[in-house]
Amino acid sequence: MKRILLLSTLFISGLHFAQDIKVAQAKTENERYREALNDFKKLVAADPINGENYFYYGDCYFEMEELDSAKMMWQKGYEVDKLRALPLVGQGRVFWLEGKTTEAKAEFAKALVMTKRDKLKKAEVIRGIVEIYIEAPNKNLDEALVLIEEAIVKDPSNEDNYLLKGDALYARNSSDASEALKAYNQVLVLNPKSPRGIVRKALIYQRARNEAEANKMYNEAKTIDPTYAPAYRLNAELFMMFGKNDLAIQNWEKYLELNNNIESRYRYVNALYGASQWCFMLPQLDYLVANNMNNFFIQRFYAFAYANCESDSLNLDKALAASDRFFTMVPKEKINYQDYKLRGTIYQKKNQDSLAILALEEAASVNETAYKEISNELIRIYNKNKLYDKVIAAYDLRREKNEKLLAHEEYDLAKAYYFGRQDYKTADSLFQIVIDNDSTYVPSHIYRGRCNYKMDTNNENWMAFPHYLKVTEMVQTDDRLQPSKKPFVLEALRYVADYYSKSNNKDLDKAKMYFEEILIVEPNDPVAKRVLGVQDPAPTTTP
Hints:
By secondary structure, this protein is mostly helical. It has a domain at 440-533: Alpha Horseshoe (Serine Threonine Protein Phosphatase 5, Tetratricopeptide repeat). 76% of the residues lie in helices and 0% in strands. Helix 11 (195-207) packs parallel to helix 13, helix 20 (353-364) runs antiparallel to helix 21 (368-384) and helix 21 runs antiparallel to helix 22.
């Protein structure tokens, strides 16, 4: 009788722990990670030699992207319990994440053999393997799909199988999501009120930028289960994608009502960062710091938020201080070019161009993407500070990378040769390239005139004449008084007038005509007035 009672007690206790695991798993699925972790902590404390508790404990950390903690739990489960299959899967996951694929597959194989007589358990083991094949950086999608089909055969009524199948199909071919959608639809055949299945479908439409369909499905999921937090988070991200920040923040606030924990707020900050909602970030960051979350990512977020939210001198100082803390705290491999670029932006706003240049040059050196994004900004600052050799070097580097310069870039490079190196021959050839691309751009003709004037010692050959003449022909009478064109026109008219009055091709009638045109543009031009004998009107006397 006592034995019967003992067995009965153990059976009830086993059911209790199984239910507790399911509750903790549901919290993980609902992104209530801190609560889930507390549940798993209690489970392993109550049954420290049950490796399955450690497996799902590690699973929670994996979903939180805390890989070191996940691996620690999986290894612990393997150490205490090699008689169950899931701890073997956990150890295999550790190997897989470390790139030890042969060792990983060996552990997976042992787990599959161990469960060959238990269909449901084998399906559970398969799902554990398939998850890592799909979600790890080193994916194994073809094998994942083969395995999940076996899980479907062994456990055909489990919606998790079809969710994973859809995930694998989408990961393998995101450009054609039709097969993934079929898998998610099968989830809804099994359970028409599965918020997970509906949200998975919504995500596909979201990634295809189908706002209306995605939003419809998120609302459907929220109606079915108003406590399913991922629906609100993903709906918020959808709205942020389309710039509907008010609606996004409403959904985030609901998400935080359901998941009011530090990790959820951190997710919120990440989303605000991605959507460039700088001013909304600051109170959330203050909350995180007040609750003892103050990693280097927090300092990065502070730097961006202060630099871009009402960037007065005080906020710029705060932004720079946060950036300094970030660079002090962060491992070098975690620094990206955006971090250097931000420092460059801050220094520019503080009118400290020399420091801005150093930061932006560091940013541009990180990778090819960074260089393409930042080189134009660097060239702008070089030009502003008359660092023409750096302008030339920057364009030379782009040419070395086989980049074809645009017409305005050729123009910019030509000016660098003109003003910086005073290499008028090279500058002249570059201005001609600009003209070849756009013959209507007047400044290019002006600069060809200037280059040829500089190369023509004492103006002996009047080399600039055809270029200045072209300017006079291009700028019509009605446009000559425009502030942007008047200086160019006067420069050209004066040169052409001089040519016809002083060169070997002297033509006094034409010279007179051009001096008259000068006076139309600038009535007080002293040279034109003297040549044409124009007298200033006598002063009016007061009777």
